[in-house]
Prior knowledge:
With 269 residues, the protein is α+β, with helices and mostly antiparallel strands. It has helices at residues 2-16, 26-30, 60-74, 129-142, 146-160, 169-179, 188-201, 223-248, 252-262, and strands spanning 19-21, 40-46, 52-53, 56-57, 81-83, 86-90, 96-107, 113-118, 124-127, 207-208, 216-217.
Amino acid sequence: MAQQHLYTIKNRLTATFNIRKFPATGSFGRDTFIRGGSDADLMALISRKDFKWGDDLVTSRTALERIRIELLKRYPNTPVRTDVHAIVVPFSQGASVDVVPAVFEGMLPNNWPLYHIPDGAGGWMPSCPELHNKFIREADGRSGGKLRRVAQLMKYWRECRSPRVPLSSFHIEMLLASEGICTGVKSYAACVTETLQLIAERECRALQDPLGIAGHIRAVQTEAQRESSLASVRYSRDHAKDGCLSDYAGNTNEAWRQWDIVFNYTFPK
Length: 269
């Protein structure tokens, strides 16, 4: 169903704007998508001339509004809205497509394309999803494929909590890739516990981009989200630690009980 929505939106945008390509981005592009817990991200690389105002670009707010209006024509009964960097097109059962406009800025020294995307404040900020995806894929390879699965477990955990924990998927994956949490011989339980511990230690604050492209990669969008997310992370971390200790002690039933609490009584068995 998500692929069908992506296809329809791509066709609509291509009919209106000068689209150069749709770079792979988001959970689909990084192969960490989970059904019911990941939005489908669509970056649309649009010709600069579509967003020019004199010698400069229009504000990113203007660019987003133009895309929102165009998508409303295709989905007139859908509450298409702006959300920081993207236009969100919600669909049934909680699924949505986040459309991120981008313009080509130039080539990085290593010949990777650099784009500008909305920064959430009306301006534009640098982005290179292809290089970030490569960074995460290589870290996943070093972990023997464990990083991707731990990222999916963290996303599942995020959706299970009540209220939902609004931690950024990209932040989680870049944190896992840069810190090497999933490398070496360790269980998935240990990896998830270490991830929760690290996020708690960092207090859900932004991660400095290890590739030096995007500045800081935010975990959440607002201070209120940071505070609520941190409370959930700390609560889950404490029970995850108890689950690991119970498992080490051979108390399997208690370990399962603790992990069931972590996942808000929806622990996959």
